[in-house]
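Figure 2 data, in text form.
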Amino acid sequence: MGRFVKLFFRIFIILALVAACSDRTRVIVDADAPLVGKPYKTYVATLRTRTDDGWFTGDRAQELDFVDVDVTIPPGHDGGKIRYNHHVAQPNTYFTFTHRTDYADDRAFSGAIKKALIQQKPGERDVMLYVHGYNNSFSDGVFRTVQLMHDFKLPGIGVHYSWPSAAHPLGYTYDRDSVLYARDGLEQMLRQISKAGPDRIILVGHSLGSMLVMETLRQIEIRDPKWAKRHLGGVILVSPDLDIDVFKKQSSRIAGLPEPFVIFVSKKDRALQLSSRVNGDKARLGILDDASQLSELPVTVVDVSEFAKSSADRHFTVGTSPVLIEFLRKSTEFSTTFNRDAGGRTGILPGTAITVQNATKLILSPLLLRN
């Protein structure tokens, strides 16, 4: 244990020094970037305070702010990778901001989303709402939302909830407090998106953002029973940094989890292994190995451990492994945003399936690509 503690502090000191060398709240805008890269628009609600130039810090705001941002993806983009620079705009190499539109209030924001959905083809009027995790700046979350929409070729529009993360490796406690601070904002955002009339809302939470997702769904359930089941077309938790017992308790308060409800896990997630140690050797949901622990819940656990080596970030394997992205994207079930089979269970992916009462665990392997 002593060796681990020493290694833990050594890693965090190095990360802190690296983080101190750059201002991650800085946003570089290049209005001509669409001439080079592929443009995407993302709608964002945030509880971050504004910078002097109108972008966003890691500090907590009192009220939600609503914007949409235009971003370009460089022409040589490799699936799973996000390259950007806080000091210079190079749209031929980096993800680049090109424009920001501010909305006066939540009604204007909802109206803009409704207009954008109407412009989509029938059957493709979905919303993918991404909630970022720990140590994320405003740019980090926006670029990840765009990358997921692009790499997975998702239908509909991308929407992002940017809660006030310190965007610093030593800001874990601040970020966990911010998760609690941001629950009301996410509920407000979900209700506004629902008013825009999408075909489906697919809610995606990563890492600590998964705790925010679950806390918010529990909160809505107390006020408005079965709202989530009526209004959400699916929930995806990616590498959730969430205590397993807490997750089960949150789920038990929700009368009917939205379906499908998918949890991507990896036993090789180093960030969650570290989080488990920091949290008193309590295993996090994102490294769950035994599906029987969730046997009473109608969830699908997808184990992507075997793809960790092809991932640039083992804490987001599902979005950073080019091999896994290609595999998921070509899956008919995934590309149609989680169809269900005739029995009503999630028919998400081919793989080795283990069913324990209500829960199903799927183990994916690169070997499946050869079949």
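Caption note: Residues 12-21, 335-348 have pLDDT under 50 and may be disordered.
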